[in-house]
Amino acid sequence: MKPVEGAEEPRHEQRGRHERPGDSGRPLRVALLGCGVVGSQVVRLLHEQADDLAARIGAPLELAGVAVRRLGRKRDSEVDPSLLTTDAEALVARDDVDIVVEVIGGIEPARSLMLAALADGKAIVTANKALLAEDGATVHGAAKRHGGDLYYEASVAGAIPLLRPLRESLAGDRVRRVLGIVNGTTNYILDKMDTTGASFTDALEEAQSLGYAEADPTADVEGFDAAAKAAILAGLAFHTRVTAADVHREGITEITATDVASAKAMGYVIKLLAICARSDDGRSVGVRVHPAMIPRTHPLAGVREAYNAVFVEAESAGQLMFYGKGAGGAPTASAVLGDIVAVARNRIAGVHGPQESTYADLAVHPMGETVTRYHVSLDVADKPGVLATVAEIFAKHDVSIRIVRQEGHGDDAQLVLVTHRATDAALSATISGLRELDIVRDVTSVMRVEGEESS
């Protein structure tokens, strides 16, 4: 974000560092980096709720400037043109800025801007899940080193207050598992496939037409967005540094209308789940994102359209569920404003919020060690002994079959099996063995089953 030649930068007054926010009515000044879908809503809320925010904080908030890529672009909310600048570095470096709000996304220049702000004693509020999941260690390290606040509630699940309860409310408990729907786009697509029988392609096109999916939906439908959020959730839940590279990731592009119909016939619904779980011995954690079948009686099965919902299971608190709008300009901006209020109060009080907690330093175990269940559909020859031969392959790898169902006859015979719990490595080896059988024409669908812990 370099200055546009000839563009006039907004004039501002430099304030002395000795002057504390709130003294003699001194406002806290906010530098906003980015004014897209989320940033424009942050501007709107800062203006519309100015009096309430000042009362909650104990001092007024002022928008010091807004860094954008293009000055003349039309925006969702009206922004005073005198506040706009294309020089984000200069805006962050200003002495009169107290809080830097980053909603431009991506790795660079967001990382460099945040590091510069923290080194200069400013507080950071961000919605940048990609940066936190890929290189959160660097940003957290800078916050700790310089004694600065780093808040990022808006990075996961939009308006849903989820990260603060994990970081603060459950700090005295032992979290066992976090299970949830954290991507509204994929949930909308799968919901439409389930309720209308639509194909993946048709459901995606509908999501794009409604603005739920981007023109390039790869980050959503391939699970990258959910994986970044899962890494952040796991880090907070288990006091262990987890990156996006640690997360096993699968998307929903291979889900067919036949898969959805088969799940429905057996009383299941397919969802893209983020699953962060502590191992039974408590020495490691597994973090994964993939489509899975869950019983229609499970609370997550009823999460419709573009909504998000997350289950947190803790030893003392039991099961907690967080539900709401997981994306969109206004919901995400609401979470950003909540963080702004928190860091503003800290600055007035002369204190800092909680730092990254990684004391547990648990290992992240590979997907093969994860214990799960499978739903397997096979296109098989319709003749005697098929089921016995298939069962031998399962038994060879110590995988127990829970449900068997045959659909169709003759050339259209389909064998559907649901397993009991076994390691993912054993289940994968079973699938490989099935593919080698002459009687198995095709392994048409393989999907994990969640939400039935007693099975």
From TrEMBL:
Residues 1-25 are annotated as: Disordered. NADPH binds at residue 129. InterPro entries: ACT-like_dom_sf, ACT_dom, Asp/hSer_DH_NAD-bd, HDH, HDH_cat, HDH_CS, NAD(P)-bd_dom_sf. Its cofactor is a metal cation. NADP(+) binds at residues 33-40. Keywords: Amino-acid biosynthesis, Metal-binding, Methionine biosynthesis, NAD, NADP, Oxidoreductase, Sodium, Threonine biosynthesis. Residues 375-448 form the ACT domain. SUPFAM superfamilies: ACT-like, Glyceraldehyde-3-phosphate dehydrogenase-like, C-terminal domain, NAD(P)-binding Rossmann-fold domains. The active site is at 229 (proton donor). It catalyses: L-homoserine + NADP(+) = L-aspartate 4-semialdehyde + NADPH + H(+); L-homoserine + NAD(+) = L-aspartate 4-semialdehyde + NADH + H(+). L-homoserine binds at residue 214. Pathway: Amino-acid biosynthesis; L-threonine biosynthesis; L-threonine from L-aspartate: step 3/5; Amino-acid biosynthesis; L-methionine biosynthesis via de novo pathway; L-homoserine from L-aspartate: step 3/3. It is an enzyme of class 1 (oxidoreductase). One of its GO terms (biological process) is threonine biosynthetic process. GO terms for molecular function: homoserine dehydrogenase activity; metal ion binding; NADP binding. Its EC number is 1.1.1.3. Belongs to the homoserine dehydrogenase family. Catalyzes the conversion of L-aspartate-beta-semialdehyde (L-Asa) to L-homoserine (L-Hse), the third step in the biosynthesis of threonine and methionine from aspartate. This is Homoserine dehydrogenase. It comes from Sphaerisporangium siamense. The lineage of its organism: Bacteria, Bacillati, Actinomycetota, Actinomycetes, Streptosporangiales.
